Amino acid sequence: MGSPRGLPRVPARRDQRPASGAANPPRKRVKWRCRIKNYLRRLPEKNRRTLRRRLLAWYTKNKRDLAWRRTRDPYRIWVAEVMLQQTQVPTALPYYARFLKRFPTVGALARASDQAVLKVWQGLGYYRRALNLHEAARRIVRDHGGRMPDDPGAFGRLPGVGRYTCGAVLSIAFGRPLAALDANAVRVIARWLAIREATDAGATRAGLWRAAETLVPDKTPGDWNQAVMELGSRVCTPRQPNCRACPVRGLCLAFARNLQEKIPARRARRPIPHIQVGAGIVWRRGRILLCKRRADAMLGGLWEFPGGKIQPGESAEACIRRELREECDLAVTVGEHLIEVTHAYSHLRVTLRCYHCRSARGRAKALGCDEARWVRPERIADYPLPAADVRILEAIRAAAHE
Ligand code: SF4
């Protein structure tokens, strides 16, 4: 039996690894140091000062008026930084407002249940971020008297706080001169320094971090980090950067060498797998079976219509019967086809083939999941569900009204 409904267990993303545990293998250090030196030599100190001055002046005049820029509350800044990883600003805005209305302080978040946090986060994706934020809030209350630590050692040890989050939150909220290197900043700095190596390669990334740390000013480091990211999201965009409107084009090596469309380079990506999954809408006495995904699995803590990966040569119906037996020790009769839902994650695509099923008897046991519950259809929306299951629920409601 694999992880629930065939989705793989995934390691923490690079940024979710502890900030303090970023030790590099010693044998690679010499190579990294050479490369770092080379990158920085491309931008002498005099040019760095001009770059800072021009970019900060541009940012002061052009920055967007965003909710998290109107506060100095470290908790609110932290929530924004976590939401903005993997999420565009317009998408994050309503979630940010809802989240803070429901959990206005770190204490309120610490007191909430996992399920309440996931429900407010529902639709934003990358749910591990929400669970880490929640666990970190609990530790802040337990170990720091409810006050956000302003020390990179203490803050960086909290779950989900990687090097980026640590630098962004502490520089913006506490004025700590720390770098924050997100995808926008990577692109901008790689272009300033005309770095042609793949920016997702370890040695290049180490060089970029070093360059970012050198560039961050002692005064207003938070504004600086936001200015770099703002430039990346509004002017120095991945395709067709608007160099004519760029306040620092006179100092940008990529612009001078006409390389802006070639940078950043990335390593060749592996093709994204597409998996086929059978999912059962299992009915009994007017209720539908929901399973809670295991905490350590992808989408951990969310509830779903049970099922799993279709094996080679297996039909969706046979898969559903097998998965229900393995996951819940339940015998089901597979009936009418309901819907096919395809959902794309960052690293895989999943097509769910959904069928109505009936289960006459037997207790649903949580063998391959954390919990199994029979739920009235009108109460399913109270549970935190993955985006694909929200679409299945909409199909169930539509079918009921036909
Ligand atoms: S000049 Fe063009 S490539 Fe260089 S930082 Fe500005 S927008 Fe980006």
Description:
With 402 residues, the protein is an alpha+beta fold. It has 2 domains: 14-256, Hypothetical protein, domain 2 (Endonuclease III, domain 1), CATH 1.10.340.30; 270-401, Nucleoside Triphosphate Pyrophosphohydrolase (Alpha-Beta Complex), CATH 3.90.79.10. 44% of the residues lie in helices and 12% in strands. It has helices at residues 29-41, 45-62, 74-84, 89-102, 106-111, 114-121, 127-144, 152-156, 163-174, 183-192, 202-215, 221-234, 253-256, 316-328, 387-401; strands at residues 274-284, 287-292, 303-304, 307-309, 333-344, 349-358, 371-375. Strands 1, 2, 3, 4, 5, 6 and 7 form a 7-stranded mixed sheet that branches. Helix 1 (29-41) packs across helix 11 and helix 3 packs across helix 4. Residues 10-27 have low confidence and may be disordered. The site of iron/sulfur cluster has 14 residues, from helix 10 and helix 13.
Task: Looking at this protein, list some descriptive labels.
single chain, 402 residues, alpha+beta, Nucleoside Triphosphate Pyrophosphohydrolase, 7-stranded mixed β-sheet, 7 strands, binds iron/sulfur cluster
Short description:
The chain has 402 residues and is of the alpha+beta class. It has helices spanning 29-41, 45-62, 74-84, 89-102, 106-111, 114-121, 127-144, 152-156, 163-174, 183-192, 202-215, 221-234, 253-256, 316-328, 387-401; strands spanning 274-284, 287-292, 303-304, 307-309, 333-344, 349-358, 371-375.
